[in-house]
Amino acid sequence: MHALRLTDSGPVLDANYPAPRPAADEALIRVRLAGICATDLQLLAGYKQGYRGVLGHEFVGEVVEASGHEEWVGQRVAGELNIGCGDCDLCRRGLGKHCRRRESLGILRRDGAFADFLTLPVANLHPLPDSLPDEHAVFVEPLAAALQLLEQCHIRPDDRVYVLGDGRMGLLVAQVLARTGCDLTALGRTPAKLDILTTRNIPTARTDDPAALAQLMAHPADVVVEVTGSPDGFALARQLVRPGGVLALKSTFAADLPAFDISSLVVDEITLVGSRCGPFPPAIRLLATGAVAVEPLIHARYPLDNGVAGLAHAARRGVLKVLVGG
Question: Which domains, ranges and CATH numbers included, belong to the chain?
Fold first, then answer.
C-alpha cells in the first residue's frame, strides 16, 4: 500500500509499505480522508522522542475487515487514537489513554492514518451518520479534544474565559466554549482566522495590539486556555489568568518551555489543567448538526501520493487544516 511515513530523513511516501493486519478484536480500515494537525508537525520536529512510522491520527475510514465483529464491515467510522493494554492499573480504572504501555495512532508505536489502510480495536470505533460528509467528519478527533475541556473544567456562564491561539485547535475550542454562555474572548494574531469566530458572534482580540492586550491583562480571566502551539504561549497565558484561576493547556510541542517563575503559580494558587483527547459521540453530534463550523478551517487538500507537499503546506504560517487523501 501507499503510506506517508516519518523517517530519519524526514517524511517520505512509500509506495510499497506493508499493509497492516488486524489482531483479534481489531478492524482493518480503508482510509477515506485524513487531517494534518499540529501534533503531526511537532512529530517532524522531534516530539515523542523521535517517533518513526506512518503519521496521522485524524481520519474518516471504512471498515473492510473485522473478524468476529462483521457488523462493522462496510461502516464509515472515526476512531479514537489511544490503545491501552487493558490489564494495568490505569486501564482498569478507565484511564487507558494514559496506559504506560499504550499505543497511539500515528504518534506512538502504531502506524497512523496517512496510508491506504490502518488498524484499530473495534472498541475504538464510532459510526458516522450518512449526513456527515467526510470533509467535516475528519474533524471528529480534534473537536473531541476541544470538548475534553468541558469534561475537566466547570465553566459557568458568568466566568470570564480567554482562548489564547487562533490556530486549528484554538478555533474549535472557542466555538465549543461559546456554547457555555461564558464571557468569552478569543485571542490571536491573524485577522482572517479571527474573522471565522467574529462571523459566529464570538468576541476576539489581537495579541499583537498592545492596547488591546493591556486591556485584557487589566481584567484577567477566570479560565485561560493556552492553545498557541508555541512554548512562548505559556508566559502570556500566565499573565492573563487571575489569582485562583485555571490555566488549561492544550499545546503539545517538541521544544521545552522557557524559564518562568514557578513560585508565582503557588503564590497565586493557579490550577494547571493538561488537556488532550476527548469524547467522540458529542463531537459527532455537533458536527452532524452544524453547531460547530469547520468548513472555513479547510485550507487545502492533497492526494496521499502528494502528502509530503501537504505537510509542507500545513506548516506554513497562517495555514489551518490541510486534508490528505480522498
Answer: 3-139+294-324 (3.90.180.10), 146-274 (3.40.50.720)
